[in-house]
Design a protein that fits this description.
Blueprint: H1 8-33, E1 39-42, E2 46-49, H2 50-66, E3 71-74, E4 87-95, H3 97-101, E5 108-115, E6 120-127, E7 132-137, E8 142-144, E9 147-148, E10 161-164, H4 170-183, E11 189-192, H5 196-204, E12 210-213, H6 218-230, E13 234-236, E14 250-253, H7 255-265
Parallel strand pairs: 3-4, 10-11, 10-12
Antiparallel strand pairs: 1-2, 4-5, 5-6, 6-7, 7-8, 8-9, 12-14, 13-14
Helix pairs in contact: 1-2, 5-6
Length: 266
């Protein structure tokens, strides 16, 4: 396996490619949004549409042509994709499939590049409905359509707007309800988006102050985690440890709200 020097120039190259293909995949999703679509059950309760597969193929074909040595970790399984490489692309071609399948305009494309040791390199979350591209490269800050963004400098957690997403697995639901019961009296408002990656991008942009989820996959979180870090925020697992790909949960936000979530989640 080739070892690559992750220089600032190389990170910028990866970011440019990520931004380009995220926008292209988002345009494809928009084209298909109002069209009749094929919806299937994936596992017991998850949905997948033909748009998920089409967007993923567009993304992976583009990246494989440009970076043939790289590996892939994708939401929609594809045995033809290499799993290993000096860079791994972590891809959710359509985050918010349930919203999308019911023509609710709250969904996005999420793409991240990580090193073989799982260190984040770059990431993008693209919201095609609002034409908003949230992007970040390691050590280079976070941007929305090219303009720098930061987590909201909240002083009082009582004014916080916190987001979460429900989980369809019964054994996860009790923990979510317990956290909600304790959190709701302490903050301004709590709401759900139906798209983890988009919620994380909104935390990075200061539109939300915090986010928690008890049932995540790596592709839900990989890009958003870097966005928040580069925007000055914090992401962790429920124990307060730095978030990793293997973690199936997350707490995220600015420092004060993250600390509040961590205190309640313990």
């Amino acid at each position: 396996m080739t070892t690559l020097p992750f220089t600032a120039d190389y990170l910028q190259e990866l970011q440019t490619a990520t931004d380009e293909i995220a926008r292209a995949a988002g345009r494809l999703l928009q084209e298909k949004f109002a069209q009749p679509r094929q919806i299937q059950l994936k596992g017991a309760r998850d949905l997948v549409t033909d748009a998920d597969f089409a967007a993923q193929k567009l993304i992976t074909d583009f990246l494989r042509a440009r970076y043939p040595e790289h590996g892939f970790l994708t939401e929609e399984k594809d045995g033809d994709l290499p799993a290993d490489g000096p860079v791994i692309w972590v891809i959710d071609p359509l985050d918010g499939t349930s919203n999308y399948s019911r023509q609710q305009p709250q969904y996005c494309v999420s793409i991240a590049a990580i090193a073989a040791d799982q260190a984040p390199l770059c990431g993008a979350v693209y919201d095609p409905v609002r034409d908003e591209l949230f992007s970040a490269a390691r050590g280079q800050g976070c941007r929305l359509n090219g303009q720098p963004i930061h987590v909201y400098p909240l002083e009082e957690t009582a004014a916080a707007l916190v987001c979460f997403d429900w989980n369809r697995l019964p054994h996860k639901q009790a923990g979510i309800l317990r956290l909600l019961e304790q959190l709701a009296p302490l903050v301004h408002s709590v709401r759900a988006t139906g798209s983890a990656a988009l919620a994380l991008a909104w935390v990075a942009a200061g539109r939300l102050d915090g986010y928690f989820n008890f049932g995540l996959n790596a592709w839900d979180m990989a890009a958003g985690q870097l966005l928040i870090a580069e925007a000055g925020g914090v992401t962790s697992n429920l124990r307060g440890e730095p978030w990793r790909l293997i973690d199936g949960n997350c707490l995220a936000g600015g420092a004060s709200v993250h600390a509040l979530l961590r205190q309640i989640a313990l």
